Amino acid sequence: MTTAATPVRRAVRQDPAERRRALYHLASAVSVLTTGPEERMHGTTASTVTLVSRSPLLVGVVLRAGSSFARLAAAEGRFAINVLGGEQADVARRFADSSRPDGSASFAGLAWTADRYAQAPLIAGALAHYVCRFHSAHAAGDSELLLGHVVRATTDEGLPLLSYTGGLFAGSLRPAKETAAS
């Protein structure tokens, strides 16, 4: 029997602020996650939503640990993801503000319709809506990974609202230039 030697792990020394600055260079679409029904509505802004599996169709959302949204989505068994358009920065900021009103009051003045399955708000003007059945939630360091099984998805035209270098950006997208393979 042979055994592999365990490699010696050495501490990597780098300023934590430098690592955080580098991570802000991961551009991502901004979404508002919602859950319902109306008497228990809740929304929160998320900038990390990603495809996890094509079969079954699963999306993942990274939230802060102990997120009330993850708890409510688990209790309801379903939720919606509203991928915001470039003109919806005010909506992103509203649901990122921890001092906003609770429940349906946080949606006051905002155009939305309740999804017939999730009973969660689908925000008007969003570029895409993913209606999800709660799959699972997992602790991951100082975050929580919420997984949803997509049961329905719709899209609209427009440009996305992006999170990049700690700010919100909207604007035109242009295809990257193709270069010859080297």
Write the layout of secondary structure elements.
Blueprint: H1 16-23, E1 28-29, E2 31-35, E3 42-46, E4 49-54, E5 57-64, H2 68-76, E6 78-83, H3 89-96, E7 112-114, E8 121-123, E9 128-140, E10 143-155, E11 162-164, E12 167-169
Antiparallel strand pairs: 1-11, 2-3, 2-6, 4-5, 5-10, 6-9, 7-8, 9-10, 11-12
Could you characterize the architecture of this molecule?
This protein has 182 residues and is mostly beta strands. 14% of the residues lie in helices and 38% in strands. The protein has three helices and twelve strands, in the order αβββββαβαββββββ. The chain has helices at 16-23, 68-76, 89-96, and strands spanning 28-29, 31-35, 42-46, 49-54, 57-64, 78-83, 112-114, 121-123, 128-140, 143-155, 162-164, 167-169. Strands 3-2-6-9-10-5-4 form a seven-stranded antiparallel beta sheet, with helices on both faces. The longest helix is centred in the middle third of the chain and has 9 residues, at 68-76. The chain is globular and about 60 Å long. It starts with 15 loop residues before the first helix and ends in a 13-residue tail after the last strand.
Keywords:
3 helices; 3-stranded antiparallel β-sheet; 12 strands; single chain; 7-stranded antiparallel β-sheet; 182 residues; globular; mainly beta
Work out the helix count: 3
First CA to last CA: what distance?
Answer: 45 Å
Helix-strand category: mainly beta
Question: Mean pLDDT, as a whole number?
Answer: 91
| Element pattern in H and E | HEEEEEHEHEEEEEE
| Helix content bin | 10-25%
Biggest sheet strand order reads 3-2-6-9-10-5-4
In total, how many beta strands? Answer: 12
What oligomeric state do the depicted chains represent?
A: single chain
Which stretches of 5+ consecutive residues score pLDDT under 50?
none
Q: How is the main sheet built?
A: 7 strands, antiparallel
Structural Rg: 19 Å
Global morphology: globular
Per DSSP, what share of the residues sits in E-state strands of 2 or more residues?
A: 35-45%
